Amino acid sequence: MEKKIGKNVSSGAKKVERIEEETKVNAANVDTQTQSKKKAPKKTAKSTKSVSGKQKKGASKAEQKESAAAEKRLKAAKERAQKKEKKLMKKAELKAKKLEKKAALKQKKLERKELIAKKRAERKQARIEKKAELKNKKLERRAEKIARREMLKNETKAEKQKRLAREKKDRIALKRQKREAQQKAREQKHLARQRAHERRAENKKHKREQKTERKKNRRGFGGWLAAVISLGVACLALATVVTAGSIEMNDMNVASENVSRATLYEMVSVTEDMDNNLSKLRVSSGVREQQRLLTDIIVDSMLMESALERIPVDAATSTDISSFVNRTGSYARMLLSKISAGEKLTQTEKNTIAYLSDVNSKIYNELNTLVTTMSGKQFREFLKGGEGAVSDQFHQIGQDTKTESEEIVDAPFSGEGNVGENKLAAMEEISESRAEELVKEYFSGYHVRETKYTGETVSNEMSGYNFVLTDENDVEIYAQITKNGGKLAFFDTYEVCTQKNFDLDTCDELARDFLAGLGITDVEAVWLSDAGMVADITYVSNGNGFRAYPDMIRVRVCESKGRVVGMEARGYLLNATDRNLSAGISEEQARAKLSGNLECENGTLALIPVNGEEVLAYEFFCTSGDTEYFVYIDANTGEEVQMLRVRQSANGSYLR
Questions:
Q1: Are the beta carbons of 478 and 491 closer than 8 angstroms?
Q2: Is the overall model pTM greater than 0.85, yes or no?
Q3: Ranges of each domain in the chain
Q4: Interval 505-514 mean pLDDT
Q5: Is the per-residue pLDDT at 528 higher than 90?
Q6: What's the pLDDT at 434?
Q7: Which residue from 529, 636, 530 is spatially nearest to 585, judged by alpha carbons?
Q8: How far apart are CA 307 and CA 300, in angstroms?
Q9: How confident is the model at residue 245, as a pLDDT?
Q10: What whole-number distance in Å separates Cα of residue 401 and Cα of residue 611?
Q11: CATH of domain 581-656
Q12: How many CA atoms lie within 13 A of 105 on its CB side?
């Protein structure tokens, strides 16, 4: 039988159907052939019967065999078709998965690109925002710097002292927080060590108990053991005597160390209390509060002196610290007596209080650092007289007490402000535009290329318009024009002055020329200093035949360029006026009131501020050995109303 299998089958299913159809056709052909054989003509009866029987039997076997073969072929074809179909389906699935994976990978790459682009854009935007933020912060800092400069430029000494005290208080609070955190950390560390020590002691105790228990269970050794015990008892007795003496000595050393440590803590507490009192005294204006603070300072100085005697510092350091403490206590007693007599503190005395406060603050910070950082071993070495960190720290404290005042240029009666009637209040008020015209006129010789108005300053005594002028070299000049009268009250600029090309006399002439341009001619120089290549000259009016210290002007001249770089005329503008005053006693009578220990030059009439009032007095420049003084004798009563001491430093002279 011809096997007919269709070619180019598109799928396994179609092939199976076709095979089934062909099987049916083959079966039909088999039936047809069988029937045709049955209808063939008979030859003879016997031969026909035998032949037909054989044919029938053979046909039946052939049909069965063919049918079985057909079924087998059909089954094999179905299996092959199923396998091929599965293979094709699997291949299709793999291809579909591959396509899906490729599509997913492509989508992932696309998403990654989008994410990278997004992040890049975000980073770019963040950089732009950060740059803008930094620019804004820079502008804010610049504005704050300008505002602070304006504030510092126009603040009074009392406001400056309050600000410094506030900033100092904040720094102290921050340091105190750090100390507390460090102390807490040390306490926790100490507690952890103590617990570890207790655990080790407990373990040792447990081991000893186990060892003792094991010894009890051992057999004795008779006489040998008795001898050993006797010898051990003797040794134990001797060791007990030695140990008792050693323990007693250790107890004494520990007690001494604890006393010294407590004394050191007491010194920290006393200096901190003194620091608070001096800081408050710098800004206090009430008589009762000043008396209370001065009394506390006197008590603190006595406590500090007592504590210092119990600390084994070297002689030089002890002398330095004791000297400062005694000076502080003595000065507090003098000021307390003065306030109790109804007098007020002068600006010079307030400057001295500020100086003492600054030095005491350094001592307190050094002591506090010492207490919080030293170890027990270092402190024991110090108590034994050895050199070490504690001894070095005390030496530094001794050097701190020798700190000189930063206000080296301190003319007589500087910073007193308005005394009596405010002369500016009666003048006509000007506009902002007029003030700008005036400031350009005042600085016409400074080659100003830009003038900018920055706001107003308002105070009880004087209000003004503020300007920033920029010259051709981009140097900024900060100036203030009074609202009443349009006077130049203040200006300041920064000039690099590194060489001394002009002496004080030449600087005096330059300063007078500048003041003459402002219409101020009736002045006399009373104090000259040239610290840091900048001449600082103080002028007072003398148009009435005497030096009027309330009418004060301070001018700064750069000795490298010969140019006026600063001026402060607040006292002159507030107080300058014609005065008709005369002395009640002669210069000889006033000189007779001076101490015999002083050698004095000829006296000069001077108007000085005393407790907010103007007093006419004779001014004498005196010496006692190498010490210089300014002594003022009331020109009407003959009483000594003021005495100032001239102090020298590496940077110039100042008054105390």
A1: yes
A2: no
A3: 12-34+54-149, 230-400, 415-577, 581-656
A4: 92
A5: no
A6: 93
A7: 636
A8: 10
A9: 47
A10: 31
A11: 3.10.450
A12: 6
